[in-house]
DNA sequence: GCCAAATCGTAGCCATGGCTACAAACCCAA
DNA sequence: TTGGGTTTGTAGCCATGGCTACGATTTGGC
C-alpha cells in the first residue's frame, strides 16, 4: 500500500531506494509495494507478540509467519535499516518509536477491515484471512466508508 | 490470491514449484502469492487490450503497467510456461484458452469489487486504485457478500 | 528497395523474500 | 562446570520482478 500520503506523520520510505531514481509514475500502482506490506505485517506482529508474551524473539516471528528463522532474520535487518526495529544479537526484537507508530496505524486499519467484513456478514474465519490480504490496499477514503458502514450496522 | 479452490475449473499452479516440497502451511497466508497476482493482472490486461486495439504487443503491456518492455517480456515467458499465453518472437501476445478463462474470472472479480466500492460511496478514482490492490485478496465468500450489498444498494 | 524507427530479445545487474546447511552463542539442568 | 538443546547468525542457493545497455527483427515511409 505504500503508506498513503494523508496518513499520520512519521512516514518513512519503506523500501530501499533504487540506484536510478525512477520517473515515479503512480499512474497504475507503481508495482506492488510488497516490501512495505512486509514491513507493516512485521511491526504489527511484533507489537502483538510483545503484548502477549512480553518479548518477541526471532523464532516467535518465524512461527507466526510460518517461515524459517533465516527469512525473519534478514527481514529484520531491513526493518532495522529503515529505523523500525532495534535488534541485538541473540536478543529480543524491539520496536522503535517509528515502528510503534506504524504498528498502531497498521493494527487500526487491520481491525477496521476485519470488523467491516464481519458487519458485512462474512464468517470470522474467512474475514480473518481476507483481512490479511486486503488491509494493505485500502485507502484512507475507503477506510472511512468501511467505518461508516460498520457503525451504521452496529446501530441498526 | 492464489486462485481460490472453490473457483471454476482450469485452475493451474501459477508459480514455479520449489525444489523441496514445502510443508504447505496455509496456516497464515503462505507468503504473498505475488506471482499469481501478476499472472492475473497480466491476463486481464491482455484481454482488455486485445478488446480495445485488437492486438496486444509487449509495448502495450509495458505502457499499461508502467514498466520496461524487458520486465514484460520476462513475465510473459513465465506465463507461457504456465500455459496462459502464447507468444512468438516479435508477434502480438495471445491468450490460451486457459488464459482467457483466468482473465474472465479475474475481470469479473475486479468488476465486483469496483462496483461494490462505488456503491459504498467511494469516489471512482479511489475505487479504481483500491480495487487494483484488493481484488486479489477477496475470497469467494466475501465476493458473494460484496455482490449482495451492491445489489441491495442498487435497488434502494 | 532501403533505411530509420519502433518493437522485441538477451545479458547482466539489483532487491526482496523463500530455503538448507552449518556454525556460533546462550542457557538450563544434571 | 559442562553438555546438549534452543536460538541466531552466515553462507549460499533459488524465483520473481525491477532496471540499463545493446543487439536483432519488423515495419512503414520515402
Structure described in brief:
With 156 residues, chain A is mainly alpha-helical.
Describe the protein's architecture and organization.
Chain A is mainly α. Chain A has six helices and two strands. In chain A, strands 1-2 form a two-stranded antiparallel sheet. In chain A, a hairpin with a 7-residue loop joins strand 1 and strand 2. In chain A, helix 2 crosses helix 3, helix 4 crosses helix 5 and helix 4 crosses helix 6. The longest helix of chain A is centred in the C-terminal third of the chain and has 24 residues. The radius of gyration of chain A is 17 Å and the shape is elongated. At the A-B interface, helix 5 and helix 6 of A face helix 5 and helix 6 of B. The structure holds a DNA duplex (30 and 30 nucleotides).
State Rg of chain A.
17 Å
Q: Largest interface: which pair?
A: A-B, 36 and 36 residues
What composes the largest sheet of chain A?
Answer: 2 strands, antiparallel
Portion in strands of chain A: under 5%
The CA-CA distance between the termini of chain A, in Å, is 32 Å
The whole-number mean of residue pLDDT values of chain A reads 85
Q: Helical element count of chain A?
A: 6
H/E element sequence of chain A: HHHEEHHH
Shape of chain A: elongated
- Strand arrangement, largest sheet of chain A? 1-2
List the uncertain runs of chain A.
Answer: 1-10, 19-29
DSSP summary, beta strand count of chain A: 2
Give me the secondary-structure category of chain A.
mainly alpha
The amount of helix of chain A comes to: 55-70%
Query: What does the oligomeric state look like here?
Result: homodimer
Amino acid at each position: 500500500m505504500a503508506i498513503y500520503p494523508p496518513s499520520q506523520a512519521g512516514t518513512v520510505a519503506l523500501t530501499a531506494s533504487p540506484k536510478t531514481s525512477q520517473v515515479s509514475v503512480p499512474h497504475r500502482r507503481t508495482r506492488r509495494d510488497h516490501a512495505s506490506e512486509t514491513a507493516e505485517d512485521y511491526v504489527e506482529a511484533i507489537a502483538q507478540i510483545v503484548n502477549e508474551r512480553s518479548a518477541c524473539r526471532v523464532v516467535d516471528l518465524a512461527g507466526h509467519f510460518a517461515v524459517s528463522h533465516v527469512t525473519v532474520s534478514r527481514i529484520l535487518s531491513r526493518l532495522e535499516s529503515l529505523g523500525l526495529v532495534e535488534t541485538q544479537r541473540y536478543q529480543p526484537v524491539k520496536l522503535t518509536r517509528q515502528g510503534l507508530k506504524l504498528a498502531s496505524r497498521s493494527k487500526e486499519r487491520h481491525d477496521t477491515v476485519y470488523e467491516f467484513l464481519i458487519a458485512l456478514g462474512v464468517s470470522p474465519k474467512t474475514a480473518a484471512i481476507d483481512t490479511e490480504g486486503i488491509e494493505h490496499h485500502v485507502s484512507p477514503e475507503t477506510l472511512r466508508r468501511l467505518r461508516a458502514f460498520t457503525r451504521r450496522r452496529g446501530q441498526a
